[in-house]
Amino acid sequence: MINIFQNYGADLLLGLGNTLLCSVIALFFSLIIGSMFAIFETTPIKALRIIARIYIEVFRNIPLLVITMFFYVVIPLMVAKIDGFTAGTIGLTIYTSAFIAETVRSGINSVESGQMEGARANGMTFWQAMRYIILPQAFRYVIPPLGNQFINLVKNSSVLAFVAGFDLMYQGNVIASNSLQTINTYMAVGVLYLVITMPLSYYMRHLEKKLA
Amino acid sequence: MLNDFINAYSLMNLRYLLAGLGITIFVSIISIIGSYIIGAILGIIRYVKIKYLSAVVGFVIDLIRNLPLLLIIFFIYFGLPSIGLKPSSIWATIIAMIVFESAMLAEIVRSGIQAVDWGQMEGARANGLTYTQALWHIILPQAMKKMIPAIVSQFISLIKDTSLATIIVLPDVMHNTQIVYGQNTNYIIPMFLMLAIMYFVVCYALSLVSRYLEKRMA
Amino acid sequence: MKKIIRYIGVMAALCAALIVLTSCGAKPLSEQNVLTNSEKSNTITWGVKADTKLFGLMDIKDNRIKGFEVDIAKALTKQVLGSKGQAKFVQVTSQTRIPLLANGNIDGIIATMTITPEREKQVDFTNSYFDAGQALLVKKGSPIHNVKDLNQKGKTVLGVVGSNSVENIGKYAPKARLLQLSDYAQALTALKSGQGDALTTDNGILYGMAAENPGYVVVGGTFTEEPYGIAVNQGQTEFRQSLNTALAKIEKSGEYNRILKKWFGNVPGFNYEEAKR
């Protein structure tokens, strides 16, 4: 395993960088999209609620790989060419945003409903109350689950390997078939994943305890 | 375009996809049963804090939980033979799924048990139950109820994640779809649509069952 | 500070555990004799492709893999084990074939595998059973006519992880960007989706793709020589020799030519007379 790091260190680091980059981008956009649909789900407007429900149910119940392959293979046939990294990041964003929407929604629901009523009674609109009163409190509840979503994102980003997205897993596959040291290569890849995910998950557990 | 759809959904192609879906479901069911049992045992071991054992189990669970499933699949498929086992791609997937999902479930079980009010344990002990009796009769049934949504959504993930095993040539519905559109690339769009529908129907049905269970138990 | 120390401790323990595991994992290849085992079980297990037209392709009708390599493997099995010998087929990809052979899941690889010095360090090859050469598949009307046209910034070539052709293209068109997909079905789909300018691999495979996809053509002739061999584990000399003898026999008896003609006789661009043995 050490010799894999020695011989292919640069390739592995490139993969690690791409894995991190795509996870961060996907987290950023899925937070925005996910929160949007979570708010849609809690609005009084029925049409928005239905749209949000459909979005969440559809993308929670279809494999990430299918969504990603769809963007890599089908979208270029119909719309425009997108490369593997982009297709993978879009797939990850859409998939994760459905889960984040669920998390944020339960966060919003866990804020007492009296607060919304009080804010409305004080003359705030629904959106103002959401923005200034409910969401700031909801986000405190959902920080630990969101942290877990980010860990999932890093792990799930391995799907980029299927679409030549130059992530850590893709580099691992290429190195494994060049060096023919399959197990050693995947061990090295595993260590690099753990370097990102292990500290995060211990920190999240610590945070959960603190917030509980 | 419409012609592609009609041709793509020929009886032969659909039968081939359904055969793949059968493999997906078979692998999922065996993995769900296996990981449910092992996950519950590991979760309880972690909760009851047996000296050393719980710490070691906890560390291994953390390791597995923090690795991508794809990597676990590779380790099982390429690694197990070096200790003398030669699983087919179907059994390799099942083993990988059980290893990964039981680690995920163990964590759900542990935090589910912890979420049950500690006073209940004390109350049960005060009434003369042993620790094991209290755990088995008082704590676990309540914890299980609370865990249902998390466990079912983990099972839904499991079904979806079997698609990753196409990389070790598991003949599941994802693989069979790729074989069909690999032979005639006009079928790409219809095949993807059908693939998404098949996964959706299976996973959504399971989530409806979970909602029903939640309501009944509440 | 305490936390940092604890974290470092955890990572150190982890690395130690992995190194121990790695050293256990590196066990030598099985010392069994594949030939004797095959004779005992009356079966040879072959790793074949299932996504490669003409060589090994899954038939959706009956869920069996069919192609030139499958037929050659069947003929060789009959020669080695006698007329009642069974050939079993396991589907492999370029990525999974060598690990599966090393692990003993399969006895031999007959899966469009070029004999190269690099691979000979890992496996042993029989004599060549098919002489391919690397070529390019492009969309009809593409500005790419040969491998030199690809050697520019901004051109993307598609290949398959673990295949020899992706290494070659690095030598012939170092300026092109290379994307490695997991199998040929994926690579062809990626080409059709416009993810690359050309798909590169051996001409035999590309002819199969072009025959099925009228909008695509094989261009530029071959720019490498790619003799395909059957790979067996190192040290399985008896098994390798018996395969070589069997191959010579079916070449002499005309069975080889019959199988070649069956699969390649009507392929446009393929010269049967030149390839027959």
From TrEMBL, chain A:
Keywords carried by this UniProt record: Amino-acid transport, Cell membrane, Membrane, Transmembrane, Transmembrane helix, Transport
Occurrences of domain ABC transmembrane type-1 (ranges): 16-204
Compartments in which it is found: Cell membrane
Primary subcellular site in the record, as a coarse category: membrane
Top-level taxon in the UniProt lineage: Bacteria
GO cellular component: ATP-binding cassette (ABC) transporter complex
Similarity section: Belongs to the binding-protein-dependent transport system permease family.
Protein's name in the database: Putative glutamine transport system permease protein
UniProt source species: Secundilactobacillus oryzae JCM 18671
Origin organism lineage: Bacteria, Bacillati, Bacillota, Bacilli, Lactobacillales
UniProtKB/TrEMBL annotation, chain B:
InterPro entries: AA_ABC_transptr_permease_3TM, ArtM/GltK/GlnP/TcyL/YhdX-like, MetI-like, MetI-like_sf
Keyword terms, alphabetized: Amino-acid transport, Cell membrane, Membrane, Transmembrane, Transmembrane helix, Transport
NCBIfam families in the cross-refs: HEQRo_perm_3TM
The protein, known as: Putative glutamine transport system permease protein
Recorded GO MF terms: transmembrane transporter activity
Domain of life: Bacteria
GO BP term, pick one: amino acid transport
Lineage, broadest ranks: Bacteria, Bacillati, Bacillota, Bacilli, Lactobacillales
Predominant location category: membrane
Family label: Belongs to the binding-protein-dependent transport system permease family.
Listed transmembrane segments: 16-45, 52-78, 90-109, 147-168, 188-209
Pfam families: BPD_transp_1
Gene Ontology, cellular component aspect: ATP-binding cassette (ABC) transporter complex
Membrane topology: Multi-pass membrane protein
Domain ABC transmembrane type-1: from-to ranges: 21-210
Record localization: Cell membrane
From TrEMBL, chain C:
Keywords: Signal, Transport
Coiled-coil annotated spans: none
UniProt xrefs under Gene3D superfamilies: Periplasmic binding protein-like II (3.40.190.10)
InterPro entries xref list: Bact_solute-bind_prot3, Iontro_rcpt_C, Solute-binding_3/MltF_N
GO biological process, one term: amino acid transport
GO cellular component: extracellular region; membrane; outer membrane-bounded periplasmic space
GO molecular function, one term: ligand-gated monoatomic ion channel activity
Domain Ionotropic glutamate receptor C-terminal intervals: 43-266
Signal peptide annotation: 1-26
Record carries keyword Signal: yes
Name of a matching Pfam family: SBP_bac_3
Residue ranges of every copy of the Solute-binding protein family 3/N-terminal domain listed in the record: 43-267
Family statement drawn from the similarity comment of this UniProt entry: Belongs to the bacterial solute-binding protein 3 family.
PANTHER family per UniProt: ABC TRANSPORTER GLUTAMINE-BINDING PROTEIN GLNH (PTHR30085:SF6), AMINO ACID ABC TRANSPORTER PERMEASE (PTHR30085)
Protein's name according to its UniProt entry: Putative glutamine transport system substrate-binding protein
Organism: Secundilactobacillus oryzae JCM 18671
Source species taxonomy: Bacteria, Bacillati, Bacillota, Bacilli, Lactobacillales
